[in-house]
Amino acid sequence: MYVQAGFNVPEETTLNLEQLEDAVLAALEGDETARLESLLAPLHPGDIAELIARIPLSELRIAVFRHVPDELAGDVLDLVPEVIQDELVEDLTPTELVEAVQEMSPDDAADLITDLEPAEQKELLENIPQEQSDAIRDLMRYPSDTAGGLMTPQFTALQAGTTAGQAIDILRRVADSDHEVFYYVYVVDARNKLLGALSLRDLLLARSHQLVDDCMITNVYSVDVMTDQEEVARTFKRYGYLALPVVDTENRLLGVVTVDDIIEVIQDEDSEDVQKMVGAGGDEGIDSALTLSIRRRLPWLKVNMVTAFLAAGVVSFFQDLIERNVVLAVFLPFCAMMAGNAGQQALAVVIRGVVLDTAASRRWFRILGRELCLGCVNGSIIGALTGLVVYFFSNPHNPVLAVLIGAALMATMMTASVSGAGIPLLMRRIGFDPAQGSTVILTTITDVVGFGFFLGLARLLEPWFASPAP
Amino acid sequence: MYVQAGFNVPEETTLNLEQLEDAVLAALEGDETARLESLLAPLHPGDIAELIARIPLSELRIAVFRHVPDELAGDVLDLVPEVIQDELVEDLTPTELVEAVQEMSPDDAADLITDLEPAEQKELLENIPQEQSDAIRDLMRYPSDTAGGLMTPQFTALQAGTTAGQAIDILRRVADSDHEVFYYVYVVDARNKLLGALSLRDLLLARSHQLVDDCMITNVYSVDVMTDQEEVARTFKRYGYLALPVVDTENRLLGVVTVDDIIEVIQDEDSEDVQKMVGAGGDEGIDSALTLSIRRRLPWLKVNMVTAFLAAGVVSFFQDLIERNVVLAVFLPFCAMMAGNAGQQALAVVIRGVVLDTAASRRWFRILGRELCLGCVNGSIIGALTGLVVYFFSNPHNPVLAVLIGAALMATMMTASVSGAGIPLLMRRIGFDPAQGSTVILTTITDVVGFGFFLGLARLLEPWFASPAP
Q1: What was the ipTM of the complex prediction?
Q2: pTM of the model
């Protein structure tokens, strides 16, 4: 979590990272430590993290990281992409790692330490000050995809009965310490139960002898510490908050989730959907271990293999027909490709609709009707165009074959559109993730129905379009 | 934009919207206006918007909206999904619309008005107070996907030379007006040029006679008013800010973009990628007009049609072979389906990687190598499994056919994986959107290469696996 404004950066808005990278690498090569440090010192940790991520060699990345000013090392380590974080953590000496972790906020430190081996975790936690390691251990108890895993324990809580003047004095004191003084301040009773919240603005505008109890908001939205992070993100989106307090089942204040952590959640959840659609893991990235990728992708490929045998089974049922009219084999993959594309368009639009707007599935009738129309229009146009091409390029002109292919395309594209819309709606209705594996399910339906329809119709029309065997 | 904490809601964290919807609809049916208003009055506008979105009939939606307390109507109208907003705007009388728009912040009002017909825009703007309509007109000059289109003009700017005490007095005054008093306060010179920023916290902690010039941060990150919204979002993400000032080319302060607007941008951009992949429009939703959907989808379907003819061309080149060995026609779509799935897995993971981490494309060699390995492992496993099935189910057992299909699957799945990774990397390199139409390009490559390899290998092996003609 990082919410401080303004670092001492050059005047221009966007830093020229390319030039900076060149300068940094030159300084590193020339062993000009002072120059390297003076290049890095004025930068925002976000820029340093970006700079390090751009460097292609891991030896150079760690060398640059070692010259990051001590007080920024923790933030930089938190902000680099996860794969690079892992590498840096591996390359740092235990002492260096302890130093960097000490500069991190407890929630970021907990995220980092959770990924280590148990023995490394233990060693690291033993070497940082008790108070900090206790805070980190507390946070590590919550799964990382819950409110507890997102929250920071560094918030400001005031006891009921504090005056605005006293509150400002308290804030002045904690401002010097590590506490993240944030936009909201919370008011608790003697047993740490959440009573209310007030913004810094309210505090600024209150008279100094006024009790915080009198200027606070008493009905504060809060989330339970075990709430799933997607639900937390939805609450943020619905209300536009900057921070939400996190409580246990007894309404005791445990921490605060801030909006910047939520941005990551929203981005992750959204992009996961694409990967889940095609049966890659939502948690897979370009730098994941090969074994993870195989574990995530292979099961869906196997499912797809089984369903592909289904489709092959449909085709084999018509082997004699294809043997007599081999042109059908040419257009089988054609149909599959077009129906697949039309279906995926519907799938992508509807999954997004269902994910963004939780009320959307209540309009299922309208959504299916819409995709039926679209499938009908696009299917007719593509079917007609393809039919025309087939007619003019078949030698001799074969109008029945043209009609067969056109009609089959129209029907399979309509089926594909409706299936693409129906799959996520149905999955949501029966309580499944609307994205997971949906492309595999879709292709199965479009292939089985599409091949069946195409070849079935071909069998009916065979007397009229068949070419004599060679 | 909505950043106020705490509305007077029931104690529980999550409202039971289902019960509330039933109660609201019952009150509406029974014409119990007082009951209806008492149900809606204590709710947060985000909850009312969600409630309205859940109601399936548009007549009921507008009836409920008419009972929303006047001061919340603008926020509710801003927070409902866009399609419902359009409907409500159409159903409201001009007077009702003017009333609602007057309660909206200028940036939200500008977004809403931009979507209206020019004549309606003019009428609406003429009927709201001059000061407000000027602010809205100002904002409407900027494209909606730029910093100017995202910013609010309601920020607090202090003149250089103001003391902290005076600043607090100024904030007290504007707190009662419509200004969104936000976490940061900006300091400008007499010509409105941005000099610095300070947080409310800094102000709270300053002594009252201290000049804001002395406690402000002087090197503030700002964005130019014409900066693309994606770039603005990246700046927010990189630095973890809550708000960024927006300036013109002369560094004059024009407005402020806040983090809640950025959440929408990030979410939209991310989910657009999925749709662009399959050639649906990034701007298409489940409630878009049919004509928009057709205009977006049909061109890509046509592109796909052309490429599908390419693939069909490859197959037709082998017609004689298929005629002699019709079992090949059964396994053609099988190969296409498996390669398509493997390729899309790689595509989804790499697109996400390239979009999330702009430095990723510099590691292209590693990314391609990784997908080559994955394609090799998954292709071998699926190829071997499929080969075994083919062997045991072919009658009589046909080991050459099994090897042919297994080898073809392995080769096409490897090609598909590498292509899936290469397409977004190449598109980004040549300055294209890495997602747009990528699935169509991928299927073309996998089908053409896959069919060519499969049938080419089959021709080579034909003497050994061919079954005698019936």
Answers
A1: 0.71
A2: 0.72
